[in-house]
Structures are given as C-alpha cells and as structure tokens.
Amino acid sequence: MKIGFGLPVSGAWATPGNMVRVAQRAEELGYESVWTFQRLLAQPDGPIAYDSVHDPLVPLAFVAGATHRIRLGVAVWNMPFISPVVLAKQLSSVDIVCGGRLDAGLGNGWQEAEFEAVGTTRHGLGKRADAFIGALKHYWAVQDPKPVQRPHPPLLLGGGSPAALSRAGRLCDGWISSSSHTLEDLAEAIRVVKAASPRPDRLRFIARVPPRAIGRLDQMAELGMTEAFIDLNFSETPPTMDDAERILETYAPR
Length: 254
Description:
Elements: E1 2-6, H1 16-28, E2 33-36, H2 57-64, E3 71-78, H3 84-97, E4 102-107, H4 112-117, H5 125-142, E5 155-157, H6 162-171, E6 174-176, H7 183-196, E7 204-209, H8 217-223, E8 227-230, H9 241-250
Parallel strand pairs: 1-2, 1-8, 2-3, 3-4, 4-5, 6-7, 7-8
Helix pairs in contact: 1-9, 2-3, 3-5, 5-6, 6-7
C-alpha cells in the first residue's frame, strides 16, 4: 500500500512555509503523495479541521514548484460548488504547473450552509454528479491548454452511499474514503466499487487516515486499499510541525 501525507491546509499550522516543509520532507522520505481538502464554511461545533481551511487547489499549485516527484491530490473538491468548465480549466492548469502529478478527487458535499452560500441545493445530486463528471471529461478534450496527463488527471470519487460508490466504479478511476470510515465500511466500499467497474483491477482505493487510525494501516492494506494518506489536519487537537516531523519519520515508506 502506497503512503501519502496531508498537506497543512487547516488551522494555525497551515502556513506557506509549513506547506513547503511538509511537501519537501514527504518527498525526501519517499511518500507517494500529499493531499488537500475543501471546506467553504466552518461547521458549528464540528471538528477543528473545519475551522479555517484554505482553498484546496492553491496550496497544491504552490508546493508544485518546490517538489519534483511527489503526487499532489485534492480529496475532495465538491462538484455542486463550481461549474465543470471552470474546474476543468483549473485542474488542467494545476496538472501543467506540477508536470502531470495531479490526482483529482471529487465529492458531492454535505454541509447545508455551504449549498446555501453558493446558491444551490442538494436536489438531484446523483444525476448532477454523473453529468458533471461527463462534462469534465468533455471539456478536457476540447479546452486548451490540455492537462499533461492524458486523457485527463486521475478522477477519484468520495462518498459512502451505494449510489456514490457505484458512480466511482462506473465513471472514475477509484474511490477516496472519509476520515470516519471504519474498516467494515472500507471493505464494503471496495466490494461495491469493484462490482460497478468495467476495469476493477485498475481501480485505486485511497484512505484518509486521521492520527487516531494510524494503527490500522496494515489492516487497510489487507482489505485491499491501494493507498492511504495520514492527515494531521484531522487531529483531535491542533497539529504542529513537531507532530508532522515525528509522524513523517515514523511512517516513512521503507
């Protein structure tokens, strides 16, 4: 199982300097990838990870110039909050500036206040997601400049409903778990996604792993998760660079 790391994008530790330090150190130690996530608004009484979150694509473009090999992923960008033609252009540009290292995770969102803030609703999310993914692929084919990765960056889908899992298998290159999925959830997700896919042997299964779940990495690999990334943004207490340095060293790929 390939191992990645969450880029500092949430809270006080999410400074430009720390973003570069984590990305470069992860690359030096042989990690596969670094990841961001999207949150438009803070969630009242929610986890500290949602209190103050950067845009998910800007930090990836920022660390692209300070790294050479490590892949750069967003897990996830919520489709209802943007037009597919705009996102296609943004993702193409990030894929170009990082030299073809982008992984594009998509989701449907869940916080009602965010839907209201962007002037949309949760009505028909499934059909809209199908159309959005199809539109992304279309615009990548007709827009210029085109992404480095052809025909487009890997598309990965988040979500835990049967419909979302089936969509990941039918239309995307893999699935990304949330920080709250249990081992049983992961096993069932792998089964449903593979069953819906015409190419189950080529799918990627990626787990977001908060600090409290790091001890389950071996079990995740045994279940069939192909990748996991340790995400200190989802710590129960505010993370620090000392925490990041210690965990990066401890779980560095061997």
